[in-house]
Each structure stands twice: as structure tokens, then as C-alpha cells.
Amino acid sequence: MPTTHTFTETNGALEREFACKDFVDAVAFVNRILPIAEELNHHPDVAIHHYNKVLVRIYHHDGAPLNEADSLLAERIGDAFVLP
Q1: Residue 41 — φ and ψ, nearest 5°?
Q2: In CATH, what number does 8-80 get?
Q3: Is 61 left (phi over 0), alpha (psi -120 to 50) or beta?
Q4: Cβ pair 45, 69 in contact under 8 A
Q5: Collapsed DSSP state (helix, strand, coil) of residue 64
């Protein structure tokens, strides 16, 4: 599967790390992911680390291969990110 909105495929998942301005911005970004995930009924793993970095990992929890739903979620999450 091609790279989607600078997500890269790693071990059967699409991953991307986003660098936010600070912790508040990182939490705000995670909160922008929530309605997208709910709308698409596809929920990524999300982790905040180093106070301002958000790691998003998209995969199928049942082990199914990546598909167009994953690419759409990656695109929508990429669109939701606002550069600091």
C-alpha cells in the first residue's frame, strides 16, 4: 500500500508521528482525531510522548490486511493536523 499523507507502512500498519507545538496542542490534535475515528468507525492507536509528539498507528485489530478504509482514515487524520 502506498504512503498516505506521509504515513508509512510498517509491520502491517500505517504509522506517522506528528510534532505539535506543546502538550496542549498535542492533546487538541488527539481530540480532533476522535470524531474522525468515530465517523469512520475505525479507531487507531494514539500515543502522546515527549510532551508534544503524537504517534498514530492504523491497523486492523483482527489482523486483516490494510485496505482503503485505512488510507481514508490516514488521509483524514493528516488533514486534521495543523502545523504548530
Answers
A1: 50, 45
A2: 3.30.1360.20
A3: alpha
A4: no
A5: coil
